[in-house]
Design a protein that fits this description.
Length: 877
């Protein structure tokens, strides 16, 4: 990293110093401007930090004027001589207080980024490109904020905790429902909170590493009803539509917003965010509280974005409200109803290289999935006093899904049917007492219930080789159901002394009861055959008492945190014929160090040693059908598994600095781990989980960002490498394995103030699988170029292009090019606009990718949404 950073150093003068008042107190956020003599044009500028220090760099030479100004102080101008050779000048300045009286004050702030303690504030107008529709589109433009293709938001390589609106949160980890639907025009500023506390009474007491975003709205959307309607329909193309609507009503006592979305252009209006909202259990120390679904017919889409492979028909209605009865009582509700119909098309070729011989299978399947989901969440906050609060949170979720496939396996047709249901509920109660200014007590009680029954049927019998004596079987059936009951009580105590040292202890008890029933049956000639080795009737009970004391030492610019967790388990695993009991006692220590070398250099590192219980899905005594032709079996072993973890992170600058670097190294060693004993035949697969010793995992990532002010462009360099060493058994042969992955890439994004902007980048991804006998490699490249042109104020044109390249395809079709276009004309500013959007302009109809592992090489071909055009209208009133 130090070698690379040398590329960004130019011959330039650095002026640095400190601004104080007459009492030698530092002056924060004062403006420093560099100007030519007798000229008002600003050549360079900066502002002071909270401690009054500043730093300004320039490559100019000669005599110039440096101006220091801030409100309530007289402006001071100093002449400086800038030389040709690189040098650092120290210039400390004292400003004289200025007293005056104003009848009226108008404050206008157009600074793109403002930093205040642990908050970074973005003025979004400075980063708009003109083609943004949703908040997600807007966030992609902000430096230091990374938005993945699935909508996950990260800052400093850490996923954010939540996205709030005007300081209020409804969605928690399910923030994608908000960012994918809220109109971008409503947002005035985006605030990034570092060290965010979910509980306001713990702010300034707890040590939090959480990051949250807050959206402040434009004044025109406050204290009134505002609506956005964006209908879109296919233009000279196949029947396509995309309709979105927002309704926002912010009043003094209530805040309401509703979303409406229906489309068949591939956009999944609710995806992973549903599960995030359902499974989020808050801060209580629960584990494995979710029920498990063993079968999933929906194939994993390629890394193209859902809008290219998702043949859908989706509808969403979401109603959300925050009502303040009085300063002490607040009620929040969120509810949505989501219907989605998906079609998925995939062909695959699987070539296996096995100790017992090689063979190839082919698959061609078409899937149709219909799913209806309803969700309701209620939060009630009662502020008992300035130091006490009570919070209730309850959620209910129910969903029903039906999947149908036409599967051609080795050119023979199989029809699959899968019916799924889910019911989930959670009741959570939190009492907080801020005993003193630096002491607090939190008591949390929670109950969770989750169940996921499934019924699967295949109209043909594929397992003649596995069950040769069953010659009359014509089809198969499996019922599986996993239920989880979880209840817990947890207390936390915080105490921070005058030296900012923090003592914290978390303790509690919780109980879990898992029930699993799986019934695999062979059907034929009016008879049902249930095989003992393919049935499971299990109950897994865990009772836990735990405590984790933690002490954080603050030694100047070093923070040292030590903690040790104690857990006493009482585990019981019951089947129809066996009982397995364990009562392990875990001692899990952790040491964490944070070293703030200065304002620009920070190091974070920790080491932990832990023990974990196995989960139910790894314990099933008999086989469970996991795919149309594969079964898996657990260990029925309650012995815990131990591992140690080391993490090191170095940050130079901040995400909004001219130069920012973020690097981390993670190393994990597992003393014992679960691996596979896999038997692969042409028509079926059997996987027995086995325990092996010593697995090692290494992951290193670096990201460098540099803003070149002369060119007004941001540059980014990404480097990554991971290595995993482990072993498994394949068709009876135990083998040592090494899996290496790497990525490297670069991006350049313009920050021009004119009519034209661009964003270009490329990234390479590689996989290397090493066995004792051979090495297999796979390399893939993704490149993109996005152009935005605004020939005049009311017209915005954007063109997005992508290229995917696979280096190890034997055929010539190893490159794929995609192009999307949008033209947007604003008829009435912030009121009425029209746009034409074209997707997949090159009309690429299929897409292939390649995957490798220790058993073979697998290529897949996916059907893509054809070229289409949408005519859109955006109406705001």
């Amino acid at each position: 990293m130090l070698l690379l950073s040398g590329n960004f150093v130019f011959c330039q003068t650095t002026i640095q110093g400190k601004i104080t008042d007459s009492l030698q107190e530092p002056i924060a956020f004062a403006n420093i401007f560099l100007k030519a003599k007798n000229d008002e044009a600003i050549i360079a500028y900066t502002f002071t930090k909270e401690n009054g220090t500043y730093e300004l760099k320039t490559d100019k030479t000669g005599f110039y004027e440096l101006s220091f100004s801030t409100i309530s102080f007289q402006t001071k101008t100093v002449e400086v001589l800038l030389k040709k050779e690189s040098e650092t000048q120290i210039l400390n300045v004292q400003l004289i207080a200025k007293t005056f009286q104003l009848n009226k004050v108008l404050v206008y702030s157009d600074r793109p980024i403002t930093i205040k303690k642990d908050t970074v504030i973005y003025n979004v107008d400075a980063f708009k490109r003109g083609n943004e529709e949703t908040v997600e589109d807007l966030l992609k433009n902000l430096p230091g904020v990374n938005v993945a293709e699935d909508g996950t938001i990260k800052v400093k390589n850490k996923e954010i905790e939540k996205v709030m609106v005007e300081g209020e949160d409804l969605f928690g980890k399910g923030y994608k429902l908000l960012t994918k639907n809220l109109d971008a025009k409503t947002v005035d500023h985006v605030e990034v909170y570092d060290h965010y506390s979910n509980n306001r009474l713990l702010k300034g007491i707890e040590n939090s590493d959480k990051i949250a975003l807050n959206l402040t709205l434009n004044d025109e959307y406050k204290n009134q009803l505002s609506t956005m309607l964006r209908p879109g329909y296919g233009l000279a193309s196949e029947n396509r539509y995309d309709v979105k609507s927002n309704l926002i009503w912010f009043q003094k006592k209530s805040k309401s917003y509703a979303f409406f979305n229906l489309n068949n252009v591939g956009e999944a209006v609710m995806g992973d965010e549903i599960q995030e909202m359902i499974s989020s259990s808050g801060d209580i120390d629960f584990e494995n509280e979710e029920a498990y679904s063993y079968l999933n017919l929906i194939g994993r889409p390629p890394d193209l974005g859902e809008e290219r492979t998702n043949f859908n028909n989706a509808e969403l209605v979401s109603l959300n409200n925050i009502y303040t009865f009085n300063p002490k009582i607040t009620l929040k509700t969120i509810g949505f109803l989501n219907w989605d119909e998906q079609n998925f098309f995939k062909k695959s070729k699987e070539t296996y290289f096995l100790p017992t011989g090689n063979f190839t299978n082919t698959e061609d399947y078409k899937l149709r999935n219909k799913k209806l989901t309803g969700f309701l969440k209620t939060e009630f906050l009662y502020t008992i006093s300035k130091t006490k609060s009570f919070e209730y949170s309850g959620r209910y979720n129910r969903s029903h899904a039906d999947s149908r496939t036409n599967l051609f396996f080795k050119n023979e047709l199989y029809n699959e049917f899968l019916e799924e249901q889910q019911f989930n509920t959670s009741q959570r109660f939190v009492y907080t007492n801020k005993i003193e200014e630096n002491q607090a007590f939190v008591l949390t009680a929670q109950y969770l219930f989750d169940e996921k029954p499934q019924n699967y049927r295949n109209n043909r019998f594929l397992f003649q080789e596995l069950f040769p004596e069953q010659d009359s079987v014509t089809n198969i059936f499996q019922h599986s159901e996993h239920k989880v009951h979880t209840a817990g009580l947890e207390s936390e105590f915080y105490s921070r002394d005058k030296r900012e040292n923090l003592f914290r202890i978390k303790s509690g008890v919780h109980y879990q009861n898992h029930e699993l029933n799986t019934d695999f049956e062979l059907l034929g000639n009016n008879e049902t055959i249930a095989l003992p080795d393919f049935q499971n009737n299990m109950e897994y009970r865990l009772f836990t008492i735990y405590a984790r004391p933690e002490y954080t030492f603050e030694l100047r610019n070093i923070s040292l945190a030590t903690s040790i967790g104690f857990r006493q388990y009482s585990n019981v695993l019951n089947t129809s014929f066996k009982i397995n009991k364990k009562s392990p006692f875990f001692v899990n220590p952790k040491l964490n160090i944070e070293w703030k070398i200065n304002d620009d250099h920070r190091i974070t590192s920790f080491y932990s040693y832990g023990s974990e219980n196995p989960t139910l899905q790894t314990l099933n005594e008999n086989f469970v059908l996991r795919d149309f032709n594969s079964f898996s079996k657990g260990t029925f072993d309650l012995k815990p598994m131990n591992s140690s973890l080391f993490f090191f992170n170095y940050m130079l600058g901040t995400p909004v600095s001219t130069f920012y670097a973020n690097s981390f190294l993670l190393y994990q060693k597992e003393e014992e781990y679960l691996s596979s004993d896999l038997l692969i035949a042409q028509n079926y697969q059997l996987n027995n989980l086995i325990r092996l010793k010593d697995r090692n995992f290494l992951n290193a990532q670096t990201e460098l960002n540099y803003y070149i002010s002369k060119l007004s462009i941001n540059t980014r360099l990404k480097l990554g490498y991971s290595q995993q060493k482990y072993a498994n058994k394949l068709n009876g042969v135990l083998r040592g394995l090494e899996l290496d992955t790497y990525n490297y890439g670069t991006e350049i994004r313009s920050a021009f103030s004119g009519k034209f902007d661009f964003h270009i980048g490329t990234e390479w991804f590689g996989n290397v699988v090493k066995t004792e006998k051979e090495t297999r490699t796979n390399t893939m490249n993704k490149s993109f170029l996005n152009l935005i042109y605004e020939p005049f104020e009311n017209l915005n044109l954007s063109l997005n292009t992508e290229r995917y390249y696979f280096a190890h395809f034997n055929t010539g079709d190893n490159s794929y090019y995609f192009m999307d276009f949008q033209a947007k004309y604003t008829f009435l500013k912030n009121k009425l606009s029209f746009s034409i959007a074209g997707k997949n302009l090159l009309n690429i109809k299929t897409y292939r990718n390649l995957y490798i592992d220790d058993s073979g090489i697998f290529s897949s071909s996916y059907k893509l949404l054809p070229r289409y055009f949408l005519l859109k209208t955006t109406i705001r009133f």
